[in-house]
Amino acid sequence: MLMPRLAHSRSVNEVIQEVKMVRIWENMMRSYEMKGKQLVDANVIKPRDLCQWLRGKNYENNNEVVNAVGIGLPCSSLLHTLLHSIKTGSDSLLMQDNVEEQIRAVGLEESEECLLEELVIFGRNPEHMNGCSEDGVNLKSIDSLRAAQIQGIGRRMIGIVRSVSKLPTYRRRFRQIVKALIAYALEREVSAQCNSMRSINHVVDDV
């Protein structure tokens, strides 16, 4: 009696691993969008920056504004994820090149975390490197070894994001996020204008 040949089926572990990867991917993209909204709210990234990235043929070029969106935004999101993982003592986020362990070993101060975020978003562009902390910490104001450590972490994080950006569907998914951020930024501007008009009307009514 001839028995039908069963098609190769994946193991349960393979299916579970695939589901985990999909969840990680979606969580990563959600964190990109959330961080993007924070940067828009802080006026770090402007609607014109997002539009410029969207029109660009390739975000891996020498344009600081375009890089701030295509590279800086994901790097900033990754940095905050790593810092949260370190501060909460979580081992759930494992990086292949141990950049998380490097950050943990360096033991960044809050002002240095802020400096690192500026570096991964804007690079060393002096137009933007004004020191985001109250102490105004910058690369020139700290020890040269410390500065080199921070720059090294920044370069490794940028390398990670560049590698991830080569994955299938990344470009399409990230474009969707940028479009959502443009809509969010424009809606925010319209809301601010409406609030401003209401304030003017109240002043006029009180006169």
TrEMBL record:
Q: Report the superkingdom from the record.
A: Eukaryota
- The identity of this protein, by name, is Uncharacterized protein
Native species: Punica granatum
